[in-house]
C-alpha cells in the first residue's frame, strides 16, 4: 500500500470546524486596529456610562462579522455586567422578529400572544438592569427601524453597532434616527495578498494534519481568494481541496485537488453565514425526501464522488445549522446506526 494512502479510519482533517464561517479563532490577524477601535466604543459601558454607537462598513468576506463576534464572545466570557446581543438582520428582518430573538437570548419566555409594544415594555425592565452591546449585522436587510428607536429611547446604557457592506446605506437613513444614533464610522478595507495568505495559513494550521499541502497549493488558493476579495472563498477552497484529496484516499493535497476546487467555485454561491451553500441545500433536499433513513442509505442515494467521512461531515454541518437531526440507535448485532431526520427535535426547555 502506498505510504500516502488514507485508510478508512484516517482523515487529513484535524478540526474541520475551523473551516466553518462561524468559527472564531483565538486571534484575528490583521484586524488589530479595528478591534481596538470597536473596544474603545464599548469601553464606557464598563464605567456604567453610555457607550459610543458605531457604523461598520466594507465589502463582504473581509472579517467585519468575525471581528464583532470575537469582541462579543470576549465580553460574554469576561463580564457579567455587559450583555452582548448579536442580531443577523437578514434572518430577523422585522422589529418583532428581533424582539423575539432578544427574548430568546436573555431567556425571557413570556411572549405568546403579546404585541411588540407589550414585549418592549416587559423586556426593558430586564435590559436596564445591565449595560448592553447591540450588534445588528446586515442592517440594510431590516424592513423597519422601530427596534432602533426603542433601544435609543428606552434602554439606558448601550452601544449600538450597525454592520453593512454599503457605506451609502447610512446616507439614506432617516435624519431623526441618524441624529439620535450619531455613530462613529469604521471602514474595513480589503486584505492585501500577504494578509490573505497569512489568514489562510492560520486556518490551515487549525484544520489539517501537518504538511498535508504540497508545494504551491496554498499559494494558488491565496491567489484566487485575493482575486475574489473574499476570505470565505478561501475557506471554501481549503475545505474542498481537502475533500478532493480524501475522495482519492490521499494523505496529500496536490495542485490538481486545488484546481478542481477552484473549478467548483463557479457552482458555489457565497451567502450569509446564517445561510447554506449549494452542496448543503442539495443534501438537505435529499434528507427531506428520505427523512428517517439511515446515514448509510442516504449516502448511497447521494450520488457524489466523495468519501463517507466527507459525507458525514456535511450531514453534521446541517445539524450544526439546525436543519436536520442525527440520532444514533442500537440495532441488534449491527451495532449503532445513525438515522437522519429532516428538521430538529427541540427539547422541552427550548420552547
List the helices and strands and how they pair.
Elements: H1 32-42, E1 54-57, H2 64-78, E2 82-88, H3 95-106, H4 116-127, E3 131-137, H5 146-154, E4 158-164, H6 168-171, H7 175-181, E5 184-187, H8 193-207, H9 217-228, H10 231-247, H11 255-264, H12 278-289, H13 295-302, H14 308-320, E6 324-330, E7 336-342
Parallel strand pairs: 1-4, 1-5, 2-3, 3-4
Antiparallel strand pairs: 6-7
Helix pairs in contact: 3-4, 8-9, 8-10, 9-10, 9-11, 10-11, 12-14
Task: Give the overall shape.
Answer: globular
What portion of the residues fall into strands of 2 or more residues?
5-15%
Largest sheet: 5 strands, parallel
The CATH topology of the largest domain is what?
Rossmann fold
- Oligomer state equals single chain
Number of strands: 7
Please give the CATH class of the largest domain. Answer: Alpha Beta
Low-confidence segments, given as residue ranges, are: 269-274, 345-351
**Alpha-carbon distance between the termini?**
53 Å
Order of helices and strands: HEHEHHEHEHHEHHHHHHHEE
Tell me the Rg in angstroms.
23 Å
CATH architecture of the largest domain: 3-Layer(aba) Sandwich
Biggest sheet: strand arrangement: 2-3-4-1-5
The share of residues in helices is 40-55%
Write down the overall mean pLDDT: 88
Number of domains: 3
CATH superfamily of the largest domain: P-loop containing nucleotide triphosphate hydrolases
Amino acid at each position: 500500500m502506498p505510504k500516502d494512502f488514507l485508510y478508512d479510519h484516517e482523515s487529513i482533517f484535524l478540526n474541520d470546524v475551523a473551516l466553518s464561517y462561524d468559527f472564531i479563532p483565538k486571534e484575528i490577524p490583521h484586524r488589530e486596529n479595528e478591534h481596538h477601535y470597536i473596544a474603545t466604543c464599548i469601553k464606557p459601558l464598563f464605567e456604567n456610562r453610555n457607550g459610543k454607537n458605531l457604523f461598520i462598513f466594507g465589502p463582504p468576506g473581509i472579517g467585519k462579522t468575525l471581528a464583532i463576534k470575537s469582541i462579543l464572545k470576549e465580553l460574554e466570557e469576561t463580564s457579567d455586567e455587559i450583555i452582548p446581543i448579536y442580531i443577523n438582520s437578514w434572518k430577523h428582518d422585522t422589529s418583532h422578529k428581533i424582539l423575539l430573538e432578544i427574548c430568546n437570548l436573555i431567556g425571557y419566555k413570556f411572549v405568546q400572544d403579546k404585541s411588540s409594544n407589550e414585549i418592549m415594555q416587559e423586556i426593558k425592565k430586564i435590559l436596564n438592569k445591565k449595560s448592553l452591546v447591540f450588534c445588528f449585522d446586515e442592517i440594510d436587510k431590516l424592513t423597519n427601524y422601530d427596534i432602533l428607536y426603542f433601544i435609543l429611547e428606552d434602554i439606558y446604557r448601550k452601544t449600538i453597532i450597525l454592520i453593512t457592506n454599503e457605506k451609502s446605506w447610512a446616507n439614506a437613513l432617516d435624519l431623526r434616527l441618524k441624529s439620535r444614533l450619531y455613530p462613529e464610522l469604521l471602514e474595513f478595507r480589503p486584505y492585501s495578498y500577504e494578509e490573505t495568505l497569512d489568514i489562510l495559513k492560520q486556518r490551515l494550521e487549525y484544520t489539517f494534519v501537518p504538511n498535508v499541502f504540497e508545494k504551491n497549493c496554498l499559494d494558488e488558493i491565496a491567489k484566487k481568494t485575493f482575486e475574489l476579495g473574499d476570505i470565505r472563498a478561501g475557506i471554501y477552497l481549503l475545505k474542498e481541496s481537502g475533500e478532493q484529496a480524501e475522495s482519492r484516499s490521499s494523505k496529500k493535497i496536490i495542485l490538481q485537488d486545488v484546481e478542481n476546487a477552484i473549478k467548483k467555485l463557479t457552482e458555489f454561491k457565497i451567502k450569509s453565514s446564517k445561510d447554506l451553500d449549494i452542496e448543503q441545500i442539495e443534501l438537505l433536499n435529499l434528507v427531506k425526501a428520505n427523512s428517517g433513513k439511515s446515514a448509510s442509505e442516504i449516502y448511497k442515494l447521494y450520488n457524489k464522488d466523495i468519501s463517507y467521512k466527507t459525507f458525514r461531515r456535511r450531514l453534521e454541518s446541517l445539524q450544526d445549522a439546525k436543519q436536520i437531526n442525527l440520532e444514533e440507535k442500537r440495532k441488534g448485532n449491527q451495532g449503532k446506526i445513525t438515522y437522519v431526520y429532516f428538521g430538529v427535535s427541540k427539547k422541552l426547555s427550548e420552547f
